[in-house]
Design brief:
Number of helices of chain B: 12
CATH architecture of the largest domain in chain A: 3-Layer(aba) Sandwich
Number of strands of chain A: 23
Helix content of chain A: 25-40%
Distance between the termini of chain B: 22 Å
Strand content of chain A: 15-25%
CATH topology of the largest domain in chain A: Beta-lactamase
Oligomer: heterodimer
Radius of gyration of chain B: 21 Å
Low-confidence stretches of chain A: none
Shape of chain B: globular
Structural class of chain A: alpha+beta
CATH superfamily of the largest domain in chain A: DD-peptidase/beta-lactamase superfamily
Mean pLDDT of chain B: 85
Shape of chain A: elongated
Low-confidence stretches of chain B: 1-7, 380-387
């Protein structure tokens, strides 16, 4: 009863099934080859999430490792309004812990509606965070985020700068060194289930963030602090508009302090009105001013080096009033005959004008060049202003006599301090610098900025003569007596410049720039200080020797002691003359 | 009656392949059951799908052995006797398939009434009459056609009575489970065809069957939806096409060697029915194209061995049983893989022996036991004893 046809039908059925299975294998291959790229991309899209890992921003530290800018973790409280069953209840409980108005918070939460992330408060203290976590309110959570802090507050704020909320440097060194400080953010790729719960790291899904480098400055927070204190005190006591002070190491050009008053607190930079943003600026390098008498030593020393004057040579100071062509020059005190040294010590404009005429325009221009005026100082800070020095072709008959007494040109406080270092270091022009080194997060040195090269400004003899015979005498018996220190011999020069009207055409009446530039100790000077007070109240005082010299004295006194510079003497010098310009 | 000089190993191969598929099932169901901590494996072992699957597989192995131990002639039609195991089985299956449709008795799962609960509902135990129907159809059609012999070529006295009973089961199952009904119909017709039924008669009878299927598709909106979704799954990848899109993503994620056993991701909520109907996709994701191919190869080996057993079977009953069992397993596997690879519209068809599901593995394993028994008796002098 066995039938052939039935064999055929049965076999056919089974072979058909096998054929179907083989065909399905082909389909499987096709999915894995032809359609795979698109399908795998879709699978990755739904399964994987890339989570950026922020890099830790580097520190900015002073020469001794004190932190000027650091990063700390800030605790914050957020809500996922969608997950809050009773928003009013949650609001009142959270508000109680954080000390916020419950009603307003409730309204905010209702207004946030279906948003998944609503920041209730940033910068919550640890106890409150604990309380929030312990309360276990549904839909309320905490998170941490790095926040830039400036532990020393407004100290050197214009130099350090600040960062935007998203952590990018937007001012000062924070901005300038953003690439070093910022590091490189990493990324982690996590695998999520369909409910969006993260459960593990994808293979090769962890690219660690590379933390930012640390910036080491030459600046010293203690000297900076002393400088700021002295400057603020001068600005306040003379009811001045503003002031700047800079402290350099004359041997290397290293910036030890840079103070701008009034300053600001970078922790709250947003709180300053738009009109007061000049506070953020490091005016020491950005704002050139007419230097006035503090400029005289540079021209005088160049004249000495060029041998157009001799030490002890007598100049006729015309009894305090001298007509040179169309120009009428006068001195604050009438002098008839002054030696070359006395012209500087007494700060005679007429004497300086005569020295200027003797030098002539070409050599005057050369004097400016040799001390680096009219060119950028080369400091490693953004905003290095070259000052305003007109070319000789633009000079008028007045210019020849103006420049020797620090008029018709504008120089930045840093340019002046830098040029003055030449007298302290034997005639070398240093390059000011502030960034000492860049360190990797583990502390290894990435960049070591050794002291940049110097160039000779004037011969050593001219520089030393200037320092010993003239600038020291300014302190001991001239206009700078209030800068004198008991245990060190200070050398320096005062200046009281009028402030030109912004549009040109004369000077603002009763507006002065009172300055003092000086250094100490006399032998192997360690510090050069420049203090300049803008628009002091004339009724209180306005001479550089009165307004700026005491502040400079204060700075020198504290900084020399701090640096443990051996005292030059134990007794006070004899002071013979009063202050004045 | 042929007598082979050497006994073949087809029976052993079939048993081993079936056991291998069952083991693969346990491993893959364990993998696909992995969750993210909200269902720890041993927190409530009785309710854990993977542990249940392992337990059912043990029962299935038992079924495999019992099915293989009972001489297949047990199922033959005994003329003039009331003791007709094949017909009895079919009647039981029909009874269950009818009962399950009664609301309140049949349990709704995923919107279909396909389950009969056993014991309190907290046990979560149940059994699917449609799985029993698979065994019943194969055994009944084989026994009936073998009993009819040449008469199967006659329409009224041969083909029709058998076909009507098959149609009844298909109709009952089809009410709630279209895919299984289609499978049952195909297997029933296949066995009758292999028995020598005239093709034109079958075709003629198939016409109302096809009409019935069209009615079933139109009557149930979700079937229409599945058909529509199949036409372009990318038109609505998050809605109608979601299931198929996820299945393709799962398969493609595996590449050649797979992401590694247990390392699949799609099972974490992306791929629905990951441990039951779509377990093949999980195999492809975790074991890759190679794993998928190996699984297909196991089914091919099983059917190839069945073909040999068929050719060498000593009688029509054995031959038809082999065709029926092999067709059931093979067609179900092919249909399931076709669904998973989005080659045909979605149907509720599991991968035989591998997908999670107690009734499925137990009854299918028992069927393979019968197949193995036929294969074992092949080539031996064997005479049915009259009881």
């Amino acid at each position: 009863m066995r039938l052939r046809s039935s064999y055929v039908a049965g076999q056919l059925l089974l072979v058909l099934i096998i054929t179907a299975l083989v065909a399905l294998f082909g389909r499987l291959v096709s999915i894995n080859v032809r359609e795979a790229p698109r399908l795998r991309a879709l699978a990755a899209e739904q399964q994987r999430s890339d989570i950026p890992l922020p890099a830790r921003r580097g520190l900015i530290v002073d020469a001794r490792g004190r932190i000027l800018a650091g990063t700390s973790l800030q605790h914050s409280v957020f809500a996922d309004p969608k997950l809050i069953p009773d928003k009013q209840d949650a609001a009142s409980r959270v508000a109680k812990i954080l000390g916020l108005p419950a009603l307003e918070l409730g309204q905010d939460l209702v207004a946030a509606g279906q948003r998944r992330f609503f920041v209730i408060q940033r910068g919550v203290n640890a106890a409150q965070i604990e309380a929030i976590r312990a309360s276990r309110i549904s839909g309320i959570g905490t998170f941490e985020e790095p926040v830039r802090t400036y532990p020393l507050g407004g100290l050197a704020a214009q130099i350090v700068g600040f960062v935007s909320r998203d952590g990018r440097g937007i001012a000062g060194l924070e901005h300038q060194c953003d690439e070093w400080l910022g590091g490189e953010p990493g990324m982690k790729t996590i695998i999520r289930d369909a409910a969006r719960r993260a459960f593990w790291l994808a293979r090769d899904g962890y690219d660690p963030p590379r933390d930012g480098c640390h910036i080491v400055l030459t600046l010293d927070a203690v000297i900076q602090s002393a400088t700021e204190r002295a400057l603020r005190s001068a600005v306040v006591s003379f009811k001045a508009e503003s002031g700047v002070a800079v402290v350099l190491d004359p041997r290397t050009g290293a910036v030890l302090a840079m103070a701008n008053e009034p300053g600001f607190d970078p922790n709250h930079f947003q709180d300053y009105a738009a009109g007061s943003h000049w506070r953020f600026r490091n005016r020491i390098i950005t704002d050139p001013v007419e230097p006035g008498s503090t400029f005289k030593p540079f021209i005088a020393s160049y004249a000495l080096a060029e041998k157009v004057v001799r030490l002890g040579e007598v100049f006729d100071c015309e009894g305090g009033l001298w007509r040179d062509g169309k120009r009428l020059l006068h001195d604050h005190h009438p002098y008839s005959a002054l030696t070359f040294e006395e012209v500087l010590i007494k700060s005679s404009n007429i004497g300086m004008a005569k020295i200027g005429k003797r030098l002539g325009n070409q050599r005057l221009a050369a004097a400016l060049r040799t001390f680096g005026f009219g060119e950028k100082t080369g400091i490693d800070l953004d905003g290095d202003n070259p000052g305003i020095v007109p070319g000789t072709h633009a000079w008028t008959s007045f210019t020849t006599t103006s420049i020797p007494m620090g008029q018709e040109i504008a120089v930045t406080p840093l340019q002046l301090a830098r040029a003055f270092c030449s007298f302290a270091n034997g005639g070398l022009l240093v390059q000011p610098h502030l960034i000492r080194a860049v360190l990797a997060p583990d502390g290894t040195i990435v960049e070591d900025f050794a002291s940049p090269p110097t160039r000779r400004a004037i011969p050593r003899r001219a520089a030393d003569t200037m320092k010993r015979n003239i600038l020291a005498a300014v302190i001991n018996s001239g206009t700078g007596t209030r800068a004198a220190l008991t245990r060190y011999q200070v050398f320096g020069k005062t200046g009281t410049a009028q402030i030109p009207k912004p549009g040109g055409g004369g000077y603002i009446p009763d507006a002065y720039q009172s300055s003092f530039i000086g250094g100490a100790p006399l032998e192997d000077p360690r510090l050069v200080v420049f203090v300049s007070i803008r628009k002091p109240d004339r009724s209180i005082g306005y001479y550089g020797g009165t307004v700026a010299a005491p502040a400079a004295r204060e700075i020198l006194s504290e900084a020399l002691a701090y640096l443990r510079v051996p005292p030059e003497r134990e007794t006070a010098p004899t002071v013979t003359a009063d202050g004045g310009d | 009656m042929r007598v082979l000089s050497q006994p073949s190993r087809a029976s052993t191969t079939i048993t081993v392949v079936a056991a291998a598929l069952l083991c693969m099932g346990i491993v893959m169901v364990f993998s696909a059951t992995a969750t993210l901590g909200d269902e720890p494996l041993f927190a409530d072992p009785l309710r854990n799908p993977a542990i249940r699957q392992a337990s059912f597989t043990l029962i299935a192995m038992l079924g495999l052995l019992i099915g293989g131990a009972i001489p297949y002639t047990f199922w033959r039609v005994r003329p003039g006797s009331w003791w007709q195991p094949a017909i009895l089985l079919l009647l039981i299956a029909i009874g269950f398939c009818a009962i399950v449709l009664v609301p309140g008795i049949g349990t709704l799962r995923n919107g279909a009434r396909r389950w009969l609960s056993i014991g309190p509902s907290s046990w979560g135990l149940g059994f699917q009459p449609s799985e029993l129907a698979k065994v019943a159809i194969v055994v009944f059609t084989a026994a009936y056609a073998a009993h009819c012999g040449e008469r199967i070529r006659k329409f009224w006295r041969g083909l029709l009575p058998g076909l009507l009973l098959v149609g009844l089961v298909v109709a009952l199952v089809g009410k709630e489970d279209f895919g299984t009904a289609a499978l049952l119909g195909a297997v029933g017709v296949g066995v009758l065809m292999a028995a020598g039924a005239r093709i034109w008669q079958l075709v003629l009878c198939a016409a109302p069957g096809v009409a019935g299927m069209v009615y079933l598709i139109v009557a149930e909106p979700y079937r229409m939806e599945r058909l529509l979704a199949f036409r372009d799954i990318w038109a609505d990848p998050r809605g109608r096409g979601y299931h198929q899109v996820q299945s393709l993503l799962t398969i493609a994620s595996g590449d050649l060697w797979g992401v590694g056993l247990g390392a699949g991701i799609q099972k974490y909520g992306y791929l629905p029915e990951a441990r039951s109907d779509f377990i093949f996709a999980v195999v492809c994701e975790e074991l890759g194209l190679v794993g998928g191919a190996a699984l297909i190869a196991l089914f091919i080996v099983l059917i190839w061995q069945a073909r040999r057993a068929m050719l060498e079977a000593v009688d029509d009953l054995g031959r038809l049983l082999v065709v029926g069992v092999a067709a059931t397993i093979g067609l179900q596997a092919a249909l399931n893989i076709a669904v998973v690879t989005v080659s045909v519209p979605t149907k509720g068809i599991s991968l035989p022996l591998v997908s999670a599901g107690g009734s499925g593995v137990v009854f299918l394993a028992t069927m393979i036991g019968i197949l193995a028994n036929v294969a074992r008796r092949r080539g031996r002098e064997w005479l049915p004893d009259d009881d």
